[in-house]
Amino acid sequence: MNEKITGGCLCGKLTYEVPGPITSIDYCHCSRCRKASGSAFAAVTSVSKSRFKITAGLQYLKSYKTDAEFERVFCSECGSQLYSIRPALADTIRLRLGSIDTDIEGKVSAHIFAASKAVWHDICDQAPQYDQRPPMLTDRST
To answer: Who contacts 35 (Cβ-Cβ below 8 Å, separation ≥6)?
Structure first.
């Protein structure tokens, strides 16, 4: 199955597409993802950069480098986060699943950085929990 996944920002000026399906979903509980999302975690999947395509609004694409290891990419008009980039994973982006418009069937595969999860949030599903990002999860791109 090679469905097309589409998505974009809140204001609709920036859109993208990526071939599907999405099969691995991580909930990242690190403090940076919590602060950037304003929530208990960020729901993400790994996508090969070469398969991700901006279809409209490239001029609205902006980024913020949190440090030398991490870059968050968002819409400059509405602020919606679309994905993040890590130089250590140069061929991969971490797509924010909240920006997807297409229905997907995947469920959470793992909770990463669970050791730093928000104290007010309980993880209630049976997906594996990791204190950090295990090496085996860095290579799972769609």
So the answer is: none
Q: Is the pLDDT of residue 141 over 80?
A: no
Query: Which H helix or E strand runs over 84?
Result: strand 81-85
Does 142 score more than 70 pLDDT?
A: no
| Angstrom distance (rounded) from CA 43 to CA 99 | 10
Give, for 42, the enclosing helix (H) or strand (E): strand 42-48
CATH of 4-118, one of 2.170.150.70, 3.40.50.9100, 3.30.365.10, 3.30.1330.30: 2.170.150.70
pLDDT at 1 over 50: no
Above 70 in pLDDT, residue 11? Answer: yes
